[in-house]
Amino acid sequence: MNRVVVIGAGLAGLTAAADLRHAGVDVIVLEARDRVGGRTHGVEVAPGAWIDGGAAYLGDRHTDLAKMIADLGLKTTPTTMEGRSSFVLGPERIVREGRFPPLNAVALGELFDGLDDLVRRVRPQAPWQSDIPDDETAADWAVRTLTHPDARTFFPLFLGEMMAADPADVSVLHMAFYLSSGGGLRYLNAFEGGAQDSRVDGGAHQLCERLAAELGGDAVRLDSPVHAVEQTTGPVTVHAGGSAYACDAVVVAVPPALADEITYQPGPVARRTTGRTAPGRAVKVHLIYPEPLWREQGLSGWSVNAAGPLLSTVDDSPVGGGAGVLTGFVTGRAATRYAALTPEEQRREAIAQASAIFPGLPAPTGFHVTNWVRETYSRGCYAALFGPGDWRVLGPRLSTPDGRIHWAGAETSTEFFGLMEGAIRSGHRAAARILAHTEPSRNQQPPLSS
Amino acid sequence: MSVEGVAHIFGRVLEVGDVQADADFFVLGGDSLLATRVLSAVARDYGVELTFDDFAFSPTPAALAARIASVR
Which of A358, A374, A390 is the last residue in one of the domains? Predict the structure, then answer.
C-alpha cells in the first residue's frame, strides 16, 4: 500500500489518515470545505475564548476520543451544572432544583420503561436482526404506547435532545439502536457521569486542527470537493474539481448523504442512504454575555422549553472566564422551522426566548447561529437519521468495503453511532482494514495531475 | 405495606441484587430518570401515583413504602 486518499477531513477521515501515515502510507486528505473538522466547529465568542458550534460533549466510555485528546496534548473540562433549572413546559415558568422536568413522574417512568424495553431488545451490532418490527416510526410508536399527555409532551423534547430527531423521521428500531449504541438511556441522557460529562477545553475543533497539522505539509487539501471515484484494474482515481489523484485505496469519510452524491465508476457501490433517511435536525445557538449572569440568580443555565425554538439551554461559558455563554439547542421539528428563518428572525426569537427563560437577562453582546440543517457539506447534525426499513437495507453493508473503497464516518460505526467516539472508531477500523490488506503495489504512481 | 415489594422494584430498576430497607436509591446509583421508572412500577403494583418530590424525600424502600401506605 503506497498511497491512500481520504475523502473528508472530519474526525473519522483524519483519524484514518493519522493511522495510515503512522504506518508509513502516503496519505492525501481531500476536504470540500475551507476548514477541517466536519461536524466539529469552533466559534470564537470573545478574544481567545472558543466554544463548540458542533459536537461538544464526551463521557468516560468514549475511550478512543479520550486517548486522542491526551495524545494531542488537549484537556477536558467538566460540564458542571450548579443552581436551579428553568422549565417552560406549560403556561408558566417553573424554577426548581435538578434537571428533572416538572411533569407527571409516573408518565415519564412509563415512557422510559418503554424505551428501556426497546433498548434491551435491540441488537446493537446488527440492528436489522433485532426482534423489533422495522415498519413504524418513533412517532407511530409514541401514539401507540404513550397515553399520558405529559409523556407525549416530553418525548419529542427527549428525542430532539438525544438524537436531533423529529419522531416522524426515525424508525423505532433506529431510535432503539441509537440509544443502545450510545450507552443506553441513562448514559446518553446524563451530564455528570454520562455522555455529556465533559467538553474539550478550548473546543473540540482543535482535535481535527491538530491531527491535520501533524499530517503536515500539503497532505490536507481544502476546497477540494470530490465528485467521482474510479476503480479500474490499475490505480483508483479520485476526482476533485480539476484534479485527479491516483491511489491504491480510498477512505470515504463523509456523511451518508454526501457519500451518495459521489459518482462511483464502474459501480455500483452499496448505497449509504435511502429515500427514508433524514438529516439530523440541529441548530446550535450561542448567546454571549459579559459573564454568566444567570448564575447571580442561582440559576444553572439549564432550561427545557416545550414551545421552542430553544428546546433546551445550557451554560457553556469558557472555564477561564471572559464571557458568559448560553448555548441553545434547536432540534427536531423546531429546527426545520428555525433553520428556514432569516438571520434577523432567528436572532429575535432566540433573544426573546432567553429573556422569557431568564427574566432580567439583558440583550446579549454576541449572537451566533450554527445552522447544521443548511450546511452543504454536513447535511445535518448530529447524524443521519435512519427511517423505517433503512437498517435492513443499509445495515449489512454499513462498513463493508466496496473493492478498494472503504467507508468511515460516525454513521458507519455501530458503537457510539453518530458521536465523536463513533467517528474516531470508524477511522481506526478503516485504516486497520487497509493496512491488513497491504500488498506490494505494482502501480505506484504520482498524482495524474494537480 | 410491602417494604420487600418496594425493595424488589429498586433492585430491578437499579439492576442490583438485594436492596436493604434503609438503602438510599441515589446512593445505590439511582438518578432522576430511574426514579421515574420506580414510580411507574409503584403505580402499576400499588395503584398509587407519587410525584418526583415524594420520591426525593423518601428514597429508601422503607420510607417509600410508608409514603405509599400514607396515601393509599
Answer: A374
